[in-house]
Amino acid sequence: MEQNTSHLTHGFDVAAIRAAAANMEEGPVTDSYAADREAVVQMLNDALATELVCVLRYKRHYYTISGLGTSEIKDEFLEHANEEMQHADRLAERIVQLNGTPNYNPAIIQQRSHAEYDDSLDPQAMVRANLIAERVAIESYRQMIQVIGDKDPVTTQLLTDVLKQEEEHADDMRDLLLPNNA
């Protein structure tokens, strides 16, 4: 006896699930993808640019900070630079999964970034610049999560994971501010 594939099984439309295999060149993006894929890729590329600027800022601060009592700050800068690079890698990977192209063009990274680069030499100015950038990233990720919502749960989860770490970074930077500089 032939099985009818258009029936519901445990509330699932089996025929629709099987039909998702049709456009294999689309990779993980099936017809039921509910978000505006191009808009999501653009948001992720802007977030990628932001993370790359943050990597560069933290690295510069790491290599140029000097002075008595700055070793703890220096260590935080390096740790954050490495974590920001991990964020960038995860964003680039998701862009590719959504059939987009990660934009690493140095000529436009600063223009697309939500955060700014900083070349200060004073340790507290560095900490302050990084705290400001982390707060910018936090707000950016919150807005992206709100826009994407449940239309793309994988991207939303990625952004939520990154947001959590950005909040930790902001907390770390706040803790490094001297009380009279807060």
From TrEMBL:
GO terms for biological process: intracellular iron ion homeostasis; iron ion transport. InterPro entries: Bacterioferritin, Dps-like, Ferritin-like, Ferritin-like_diiron, Ferritin-like_SF, Ferritin_DPS_dom. Fe cation binds at residues 51, 87, 134, 166, 169. It holds the Pfam family Ferritin. Residues 34-182 form the Ferritin-like diiron domain. Gene3D superfamilies: 1.20.1260.10. GO terms for cellular component: cytosol. GO terms for molecular function: ferric iron binding; ferroxidase activity; heme binding. Keywords: Iron, Iron storage, Metal-binding. Belongs to the bacterioferritin family. This is Ferritin-like domain-containing protein. It comes from Zemynaea arenosa.
